């Protein structure tokens, strides 16, 4: 039996556990559990850290059962990697092991007043005041402002900091700490890709920055140790996989970049999950954007390997608009139903949907923006609305692709894509039409998990995965079928669709 490598993929909407063959990258088995999102007040988004851990344990155990049913010995699992929703912020007590508040999810807007205060005190009210160190604008999105809110508003957090019992972390840190023993010797660490999303990490020196910590008034002793994305952090303490090394850690968007094998400068991918995130590898140098993109640490695949950077266009709401149409409006019963509904109309009939539920991220960085639906007539029905929602995802991607092309000067000639929404073929065709370049989707859609499995399997001391080897991965191409005047070259795939244009 070939060695196996496992991955925990803790996303905003769900947790997954997946097991890959380290020689062929074949997905052997997996299990997925949906995560409950809480909206206690308008603009607030929280998740329960204990529910997150329970979902991780459940996914591990259920996958191990499935492997046993396949007559696969779980002792073939040689390493485990963790990839996660980024920026989501937790504080817990290292003595009791208890979370001191719910996880504040990246989409959460409660820190808008904090952000305004911080921007007001920056020279020239410049939201890019810290960009030279962090690659990021001051925004509700990043962990430092969420942590600031916890320190200001939650007594338990303040007390735990005073008694030196508080630990801060993003979801990766929380999972690794729990899996390596929790209050009985858990390892408190994160990787460079996750650290680079906190706004406390200097992406030039690759360390926590005392000046940034002073700026946000964050005590440095509560921060996790920053490690590379591929090294042994610790070993699983309990459950079926006790003794297996945890040796890969990457933020989900970085993991997808690795999983799509975008190792060379200029290569890019777009992942369509809750939000959508276009990352382009810029090699070993951080490139600062002139067009509203972020500069982020993509990965550092080994203690002695150089860090690689990426330019990133982040869109807050992509799949979440479909979830909203399902959960809040009830116009579909499941996310996948939207495709049939939208295809039945084949057009939005002049209806436009700007799903700025959490403000607008790249390239605007405008936290006060809110969603609108416009262009409605007596004729508009839920099919048109469904179509407009899918188009909205494509238009947002077009905007960040344009920014990316302007920043790099070398236009992308095709777009590699992945994520839950890419199972929607109508969306993929619309995206190719709206970008006017081909969209390429791998047949194995779990690239986020694959990326961190690769990092875990390649770590020194594990050595079961060879990163630069060429894997024969299948892919499907969606060619643009629309010309620049908005006319369709063929009517084969979108029957009766009247091409809509960007307003
Ligand atoms: N066929 C579909 N058409 C449109 N949207 C879909 C479809 N299937 C799933 N989605 C949307 O995609 C999202 C789930 O994608 P995915 O599974 O990649 O997310 P995740 O990994 O759990 O979360 P994260 O965004 O943190 O990665 C949901 O918001 C869902 O509404
Ligand atoms: Mg995901």
From TrEMBL:
CDD domains: ASKHA_NBD_FGGY_GK1-3-like. PROSITE patterns: FGGY_KINASES_1, FGGY_KINASES_2. It comes from the Eukaryota. InterPro entries: ATPase_NBD (IPR043129), Carb_kinase_FGGY (IPR000577), Carb_kinase_FGGY_CS (IPR018483), FGGY_C (IPR018485), FGGY_N (IPR018484), GK1-3_metazoan-type (IPR042018), Glycerol_kin (IPR005999). It is found in: Cytoplasm; Mitochondrion outer membrane. The keyword Glycoprotein does not apply. Its EC number is 2.7.1.30. It is an enzyme of class 2 (transferase). GO terms for cellular component: mitochondrial outer membrane. GO terms for molecular function: ATP binding; glycerol kinase activity. GO terms for biological process: glycerol catabolic process; glycerol-3-phosphate biosynthetic process; triglyceride metabolic process. Residues 482-503 are annotated as: Disordered. Keywords: ATP-binding, Cytoplasm, Glycerol metabolism, Kinase, Membrane, Mitochondrion, Mitochondrion outer membrane, Nucleotide-binding, Transferase. Belongs to the FGGY kinase family. This is glycerol kinase. It comes from Betta splendens. The lineage of its organism: Eukaryota, Metazoa, Chordata, Craniata, Vertebrata. The gene is LOC114846808.
């Amino acid at each position: 039996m070939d060695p196996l490598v496992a991955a925990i993929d803790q996303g905003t909407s769900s947790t997954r556990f997946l097991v890959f063959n380290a020689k062929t990258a074949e997905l052997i088995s997996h299990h997925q559990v949906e995560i409950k999102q809480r909206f206690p007040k308008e603009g607030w988004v929280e998740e329960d850290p204990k529910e997150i851990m329970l979902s991780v344990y459940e996914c591990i155990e259920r996958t191990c059962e499935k492997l046993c049913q396949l007559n696969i010995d779980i002792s073939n699992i040689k390493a485990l990697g963790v990839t996660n929703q980024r920026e989501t912020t937790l504080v817990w007590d290292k003595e009791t092991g208890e979370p001191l508040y719910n996880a504040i999810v990246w989409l959460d807007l409660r820190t808008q007043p904090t952000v305004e205060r911080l921007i007001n005190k920056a020279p020239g009210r410049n939201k890019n005041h810290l960009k030279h160190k962090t690659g990021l604008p001051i925004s509700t999105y990043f962990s430092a402002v969420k942590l600031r809110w916890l320190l200001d508003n939650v007594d338990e957090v303040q007390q735990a900091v005073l008694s030196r019992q508080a630990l801060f972390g993003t979801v990766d840190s929380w999972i690794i700490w729990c899996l390596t023993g929790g209050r009985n010797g858990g390892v408190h660490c994160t990787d460079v890709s996750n650290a680079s999303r906190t706004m406390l990490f200097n992406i030039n020196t690759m360390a926590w920055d005392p000046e940034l910590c002073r700026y946000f008034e964050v005590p440095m002793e509560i921060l996790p140790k920053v490690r590379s994305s591929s090294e042994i952090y610790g070993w699983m303490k309990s459950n079926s996989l006790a003794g297996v090394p945890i040796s890969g850690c990457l933020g989900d968007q970085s993991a997808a970049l690795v999983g799509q094998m975008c190792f060379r400068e200029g290569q890019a991918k777009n992942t369509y999950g809750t939000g959508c995130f276009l990352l382009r590898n810029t090699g070993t140098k951080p490139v600062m954007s002139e067009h509203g993109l972020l500069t982020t640490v993509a990965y550092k695949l080994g203690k002695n390997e150089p860090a690689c950077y990426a330019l990133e266009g982040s869109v807050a709401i992509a799949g979440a608009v479909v979830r909203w149409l399902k959960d809040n409006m009830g116009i579909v019963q499941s996310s996948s139903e939207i495709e049939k509904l939208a295809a039945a109309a084949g057009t939005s009939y002049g209806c436009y949907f700007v799903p700025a539920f959490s403000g607008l991220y790249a390239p605007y960085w405008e936290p006060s923006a809110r969603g609108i639906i416009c262009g409605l007539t007596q004729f508009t029905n839920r099919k048109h609305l469904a179509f407009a929602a899918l188009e909205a995802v494509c238009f947002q991607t077009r905007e960040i692709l344009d920014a990316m092309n302007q920043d790099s000067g070398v236009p992308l000639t095709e777009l590699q894509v992945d994520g839950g929404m890419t199972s929607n073929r109508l969306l993929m065709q619309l995206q190719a039409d709206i970008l006017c370049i081909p969209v390429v989707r791998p047949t194995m859609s779990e690239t986020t998990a694959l990326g961190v499995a690769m990092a875990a399997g390649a770590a020194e001391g594990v050595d079961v995965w060879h990163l630069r080897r060429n894997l024969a991965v299948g892919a499907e191409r969606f060619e643009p079928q629309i010309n620049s005047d908005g006319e369709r070259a063929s009517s084969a795939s979108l029957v009766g669709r009247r091409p809509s244009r960007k307003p």
